[in-house]
Each structure stands twice: as C-alpha cells, then as structure tokens.
Specification:
- One of its GO terms (biological process) is aerobic electron transport chain.
- It is found in: Cell membrane.
- The longest helix has about 30 residues, at about 205-235.
- The termini are far apart.
- The protein has one domain.
- The chain has 15 helices and four strands.
- The protein is mostly helical and about 375 residues long.
- It has a two-stranded antiparallel ribbon. A two-stranded antiparallel sheet has the order 3-4.
- Helices cover about 65% and strands about 5% of the residues.
- Helix 1 (about 5-25) packs across helix 14 and helix 7 packs antiparallel against helix 8 (about 115-140).
Length: about 375
C-alpha cells in the first residue's frame, strides 16, 4: 500500500460519493416537477412531504462530497472553490434556500407564504442542478487557471492557484459541452424524481402524471447525455506522462481509458442497462413501483465509471486550458501520505454509516404516503 494506492483509493471514494449524490438529486428533480405533476395545493403538499423526508440525505452527501475532496485533494479544492467560486457559491445558496423552504413552508406565522418557499424549491431544482452539471463538465473540458506551488513561499501573497478569467467559473456556461452535461444531470434528476413519486406516493393522478414525465424526461436525458458522451469520447483529452508527469493532449483519451480499463467499461455498460431497465419499468409497467431502485443503481454505476476514467490511467481530472502543466491529477493535488493513511482508517466506518442510512430509509418508506398522512400530526409536515 504505497502512496499511489492511497491516492487511487481516495479518488474512488470521492467518485463514489459523487455518484451517490447524483442519484440523490432525485429530490431536486422532484422539486422541479412540483407544478408539472402537482395540479393542486394538496397534490404539491403531498409531493413536498414525499421528497421532504429525503432532502437531508442529499444535503449531507453534498457536504461530505466537498469535505472528502478538501481532505484528500486539497489543491483541487483551493483551485476550484477558490477560483471558480461563483458557480459553487450559487449552488450553495440554492441548497441553503432549499433547507429553509422545507423548514418554514408550512410553519405557523409564515409571513412569506408557502408559494414563496415553493419558488425556492423550484430554484434549487432548476438552477442548482444545471450549475452543478455544468461545473462538473469542466472536469472534461478544462478551466482557466494557473498553479504555481512556489508562491507558497511568498510572505505577502502565498496564493498557489490564480484564476485567469474575471467571470471566475461562470465562463463554463459558454462551453456547449458543459451545458450538455448540466442538462443531462437536470433531466436525469427529473426522471429519478418521477420514479420516486411512483414508488412513494399512493395517488392515482400523481402516479399517472409521473409516468408521463418519466417518458418525456428520459428522451431529453438520452439526447443530451449521448451528445455529451459521444462528443467527449471523440474529443482530445488531457493525458499525463506516467514518468515525467507532463500533461499533453491525446486524441480520444477518455475512449482509450474505457478500453484500457475494461472493468470500468463493463461497469458503465451495466449501469446504463440498469438505468434503462428502471426507466422501462416506470413507463411501461403500470403496476410496478420498483423502477427507482434499478434506475438508482444504474445511475450510481454509470456516474462512478465516468468519474473513474477522469482520474485513473494517467489522466488530469481537473485540466487547465491556460497552462497544461498546471492541470491537476491525483498525483500532484493529493494530501500527504500520512493524511491519506489516517483518513483511510476512518473510511472503514463508511459501511456502518451506509447501513444506518439504509435502515432509516426503510423505516421512513415502509408504506406509501397518501393524503391521510397530511393530517397525521405524528409525521413531520413540510
């Protein structure tokens, strides 16, 4: 277990957290459908109470994902969050507004009215997802920054990374490939949100409208994701020379990564098949409510595969288009060996946490909710 092993181990854990986060975005996807599926205040309240039981899982996973990146690859954290701060700040604001909305939407003395908080939920569902997907798209297309580690010795300005664009991250929306990934994440979240409503809510009208939204958003997701995926496989990628660490452009780099790491390619294929199977259940099997679980597993496997080909096989996971040699890899941006070792011991408790989440989820979803649950004072109301 040398230094390289721990770097790859932590890239796997961070990627797994990112994949789980994308699955949990079904909460945001459900929020974006409040006025599409819900036609009355009672139906929207039922939908909010359904996903309201899970929003903390998404928020906690987002924080853990950021914390894991900070602890294991601090140079990425300081470069991206310190340089491209506008997208990340807007994403954070969207999630903070979401937390306030679930807390105060139905609270007595709510002077803003429940529609104001529903607007905040829509904002989180639309803007939060689009910005997150667009920001992650820069992992494939590159960003405008320069890294100079020698600056750490400057007493007045010990700044290692400097951003080269005055928009500080917002320039990512000008790249159509980034936007395609943002749209793909958005439509995927709406598919997962619709499948979750089918699984969790006992309501004929909501169920029928949710199945319709699964079909519509699945088509839009497949169009945007395939456009991004094919473009990425055909485009030049940011390769790293294994001996010198020099970063250079390689034709079809991410396609080569899939070929040269066949297990990841197989995992991607299994994930896509599971996702499509879950979608098929949601669209064509009117009596089945299990589509969310197949689609959820497929989402985790597919996203995990895409993130792994970003960091493994001598690839720069956060490339710089301003200076190729400033690009970040799992080798030049990770914490020290001692830090990674200590954190690896702590990570052994992850299965215990996952088991608790699974238990809590099962207890909350033992039965589908319906309008009668809105009158039950023993259940939290959102």
């Amino acid at each position: 277990m040398d230094y390289a092993f721990y770097q790859e181990y932590w890239w796997f854990l961070v990627s797994l957290l990112g994949a789980i986060l994308v699955f949990l975005f079904f909460v945001q996807g459900g929020q974006s459908l409040l006025y599409t599926i819900g036609k009355t205040d009672e139906e929207r309240t039922l939908m909010v109470n359904s996903i309201g039981r899970k929003w903390e899982f998404t928020f906690t996973t987002l924080v853990t994902f950021g914390g894991g990146f900070f602890a294991s690859f601090p140079l990425f954290y300081s470069t991206s969050f310190g340089g491209a701060y506008w997208p990340w700040m807007l994403i954070l604001i969207c999630f903070v507004l979401q937390a306030f909305s679930y807390e105060f939407r139905k609270k007595e003395g709510n002077i803003l009215g429940h529609k104001t908080y529903e607007a905040f939920l829509l904002l989180n569902g639309f803007v939060g997802l689009l910005l997150f997907g667009t920001a992650v798209g820069t992992f494939f297309t590159g960003s405008e920054f320069i890294v100079n580690k020698e600056n750490i010795y400057q007493p007045l300005m010990p700044v290692i990374s400097t951003w080269q664009n005055p928009l500080h991250g917002l320039e990512a929306v000008a790249n159509p490939r980034n936007v395609l990934l943002g749209l793909a994440v958005f439509f995927l979240a709406r598919v997962l949100g619709s499948l979750y409503f089918i699984n969790n809510i006992r309501h004929v009208a909501i169920n029928a409208r949710s199945r319709k939204q699964v079909l519509i958003n699945s088509i839009l997701f497949l169009v945007t994701f395939l456009a991004f995926f094919i473009w990425t496989l055909c485009a030049k990628g940011f390769a790293v020379h294994p001996e010198t660490g020099e970063v250079y452009m390689q034709n079809a780099k991410y396609f080569h990564n899939l070929i040269e790491m066949p297990l990841i390619g197989i995992m991607l294929l299994v994930g896509v098949v599971a996702l499509l199977y879950g979608i098929g259940i949601g669209v064509f099997c009117s009596r089945s409510t299990k589509g969310i679980w197949f689609a959820g597993l497929g989402t985790v496997l597919a996203v995990l595969s895409l993130l792994l080909i970003l960091g493994y096989n001598n690839t720069a996971f956060y490339p710089s288009v301003s200076d190729l040699q400033s690009s970040l890899t799992i080798r030049n941006s990770s914490s020290s060996l001692f830090t990674l070792k200590v954190m690896s011991v702590v990570s052994l408790f992850i299965p215990v946490v996952l088991a608790y989440i699974f238990y809590a989820w099962r207890m909350m979803d033992k039965k589908q909710i319906d309008t009668n649950d809105l009158k039950d004072n023993h259940n939290p109301q959102y």
